[in-house]
Amino acid sequence: MRVLVVNAGSSSLKLALLNETDEVVDRVTLDRWSGEDETEDIGKFVGRLPGVDAVGHRIVHGGPELTGPVRIDGSVRDRIAGLAELAPLHQPRGVAGIDAVGKVLPDVPAVACFDTAFHHDLPPAAATYALPREWNERWGVRRYGFHGLSHAHVARRVAELAGPGRRIVSCHLGSGASLAAIDGDRSVDTTMGFTPLAGLVMATRSGDVDPGLLLWLLNRVDADELSDTLEHHSGLAGLTGGSGDVRDVIGSDEPDDRLALAVYTHHLRREIAAMAAALNGLDVLVFTGGVGEHQPPIRAAAAEGLAFLGVRISAAANDAGRTDITAAGAPVRTLVLESREDVEIARQVRAVVS
Predict the structure, then answer these.
(1) What's residue 113's pLDDT?
(2) Which of 7, 51, 94, 266 has its CA 20 to 30 A from that of 331?
(3) What CA dihedral angle connects 147, 153, 155 and 161, to 10 degrees?
(4) Across the chain, where does the E strand assignment appear?
(5) What Cα–Cα distance (Å) separates residue 262 from each residue in 9, 125, 213, 244, 352?
(6) In angstroms, rounded to a whole number, what is the distance separating the alpha carbons of residues 313 and 166?
(7) What is the pLDDT of residues 282-341, one digit of tens each?
(8) CA nearest to 321, candidates 341, 302, 298
(9) Pick from 191, 215, 216: which is nearest to 205 by CA?
């Protein structure tokens, strides 16, 4: 089954056709996609493909009910759109992608694959916020977690490389970043929460901030400004005044850049240790995502503070960008894996359509 994978980002639309063996036949990134349902460029790309048997859409938030891949119809599309308040940057774009590709391929089955689904059965102790029970039940307040398609792919690759049943901390590090504690193939904890703002320091997102501080700030700025600042002007960008690209701070001698990198890696090490605690130990540490795959200094800085967990990496293997960067004799295996959300989406699509 040839699957067209659709990934609608905050400013671009990525399309890739995977064949029966998950090889990429063709791909395109529409950088100037407006997030409306325009179809001209999509139609040109689809027109040069050898054929599409099914479509898989990456959708960021599934809410409390959409807990696995599901075939898209009008009702499912509207339920996805109704979750825009929980992921305002991504959910409307995902719906626009559904509409646009649906116009080009109206008779091809389409499946929604959710970043939250991998975490839907977190243990109650990890999923539950210590808020009034009535609030949690009325509004579906819980830790949802994100990047689930990437973390699920990591779990499958680790089973292939290191055997099943491993205790894994998966580090998806990109402009957005999250960790997952994975016991075999099940997520038991994660750093993102009700929204993708929680957890690690990211490119432009704050990560965890004292809720009391946010209440204090609301007496000084309005809610819209606070929301915009936490999403777009915090994280590395907020600390440095720059773009938030980690490449701009690595190796910099500017005091603000050095502090930003120290804050970033401090939170990363702390949260890796927390995920290991949720697993009662650690067998495999994985780095994935754009930063995780391509920035050896970040991997080295994280590992340097985790020797007490048994993490030790080979500097030569790390600098060379090898898949296995474990130091000789280290009890914890450390891997660098390509983030292949497209492969996980294709797998889910085939399961649903078949």
Answers:
(1) 98
(2) 266
(3) -140
(4) 3-8, 13-18, 24-30, 54-59, 70-71, 110-114, 167-173, 177-183, 186-190, 284-288, 333-336
(5) 29, 30, 22, 14, 44
(6) 19
(7) 999 999 999 999 999 999 999 999 999 999 999 999 999 999 999 999 999 999 999 999
(8) 298
(9) 191
The pLDDT confidence band at residue 88, using thresholds 50, 70 and 90, is confident
Is 178 within 8 Å of 187 (Cβ atoms)? no
- Which pLDDT value is given to residue 5? 98
Q: Minimal CA–CA distance to 44: which of 24, 56, 71, 26?
A: 26
pLDDT at 155 over 80: yes
pLDDT at 90: 86
Give CA–CA dist 187/171, Å, rounded.
Answer: 13
Whole-angstrom Cα distance, residue 15 to residue 98?
A: 12
Q: Report, as residue numbers or ranges, the catalytic residues.
A: 115
Cα(219)–Cα(8) distance, rounded to whole angstroms? Answer: 35
- 159 vs 162: CA distance, rounded Å: 5
For the chain, domains (ranges, CATH) are: 3-114 (3.30.420.40), 161-336 (3.30.420.40)
CA distances from 130 to 31, 85, 127, 187, 342 (A): 41, 22, 10, 20, 35
Give the Cβ contact number of residue 165 at 10 Å.
Answer: 11
Spatial strand order in the sheet of 3-8: 24-30, 13-18, 3-8, 54-59, 110-114, 70-71
Q: Token pair of 112, please?
A: 């929604």
User: Measured between alpha carbons, how far is 140 from 335 in angstroms, rounded to an integer?
Assistant: 36
In 3-state terms, what secondary structure has residue 142? coil
CB atoms within 10 A of CB 145: 29
- Structure confidence by residue, pLDDT tens digits, 22-79: 999 999 999 878 777 778 999 999 999 999 999 999 999 999 999 999 999 999 999 9
Burial tier of 334 (Cβ tally within 10 Å: 0-12, 13-18, 19+): buried
d(CA 354, CA 343): 16
